[in-house]
Amino acid sequence: MAGLSIRDVGHVYDDGTRSLDGASLDLAAGEVVAVVGPSGCGKSTLLRIVAGLATPTTGAIDAPAARIGVVFQQPTLLPWRTVRRNVSLPLDLRGVRDDASVDAALHDVGLGDAHDKLPRQLSGGMQMRTAVARALVDRPELVLLDEPFAAVDEMLRERLNDLFLRLRDSRGFSAIFVTHSVAEAVFVSDKVAVMSPRPGRVAGVVDVPFGRTRQSDLRYAPEFARVCGRVSALVRTADA
C-alpha cells in the first residue's frame, strides 16, 4: 500500500488559466480519499498531476515509488482488442506476460466469462468493469479514479461502488476517487476532501466514520445522511 502528500500544488495552463492554487492533501497508506467540488475546480487536473500525466507549476507531490492504476471518466477501451487483451494492455506495454494477473483481475470484477468479447459487445457497466480490471492488472498500490461511474444509471452506479469497496478490501490499495456525487463520495471513502472553485484548493476535509466494511443499506442510515449533509454544507461554503 502507498500513501502520498500533496503540498501547495498549483497549476497554470499554457493559456494562463490557473486551475489549482495551493492545493494540499494527505493520503495515508490503504486509505481512500474522495474529492468533490464544482465543475472546473481542478479535481481532474490534480488527479493527472498525481498520476504523472501533468506537471505542477508550483508545489510538489511527496510519494513513495508505487505502481499506479488509473480509471478515467470513460472506459477508453481499444475496440479491436478483446476484454482480455484490453485488460492485459498495461502488461503488454511493459513487455510482460502475466496470465495469472489478468485472470485474477477479470475474476475480481466478475468478467471471467466475457474475456473473449469485444467492447462493442459489452454493456456500459461491463465496459467500465473492464477498465477497472485494466487498472488493477498490474497490482497497483495506488488507484486514481476520475469520476469513473458518472455515465451510468444510479442503480448500476451503486453496484459499481459496492464492487469498488470489495476490491479495495481484497487488494488493499490506496485510492483517490474524484466524483461530483456527495453520496458516492461518502459511501466509498474514509474521508472527503472538498475543493473550492477555480483556482482549486482543498477548502476542508470531512472524516467518514463508517469503517472499511460497508453494506449497501448504509446509504439509507440517518448517520450517512448526516455525513452527507456536512460535506454538502462545506461544498456550499467553499463555493460562496
Descriptive overview:
It is a single chain. With 240 residues, this protein is of the alpha/beta class. The chain folds into 2 domains: 1-51 and 147-240, Rossmann fold; 67-140, no CATH class. The protein has helices spanning 43-51, 83-87, 89-93, 99-108, 124-136, 154-171, 182-188, 222-239; strands spanning 4-12, 18-27, 32-36, 58-62, 68-71, 142-146, 174-178, 191-195, 202-207. It has a 6-stranded mixed beta sheet, sandwiched between helices. Strands 2-1-4 form a 3-stranded antiparallel beta sheet, covered by helices on one side. Strand 1 and strand 2 form a beta hairpin. The radius of gyration is 18 Å and the shape is globular. The relative contact order is 0.19.
Summarize the structure.
The protein is of the alpha/beta class and 240 residues long. Helices cover 35% and strands 22% of the residues. Strands 5-6-7-3-8-9 form a 6-stranded mixed beta sheet, with helices on both faces. A 3-stranded antiparallel beta sheet has the order 2-1-4, covered by helices on one side.
CATH architectural category of the largest domain: 3-Layer(aba) Sandwich
Quaternary form:
single chain
**Count of DSSP-assigned helices:** 8
* Radius of gyration, whole Å: 18 Å
In CATH, what is the homologous superfamily of the largest domain? Answer: P-loop containing nucleotide triphosphate hydrolases
Give me the strand/helix succession: EEEHEEHHHHEHEHEEH
Shape: globular
- SS strand fraction: 15-25%
Q: Helix amount, in percent?
A: 25-40%
The biggest beta sheet is recorded as: 6 strands, mixed
Number of domains: 2
Strand order, sheet with most strands:
5-6-7-3-8-9
Task: Report the strand count.
Answer: 9
Give the averaged pLDDT, no decimals: 91
Separation, N- and C-terminal Cα atoms: 37 Å
- At the third CATH level, what is the topology name of the largest domain? Rossmann fold
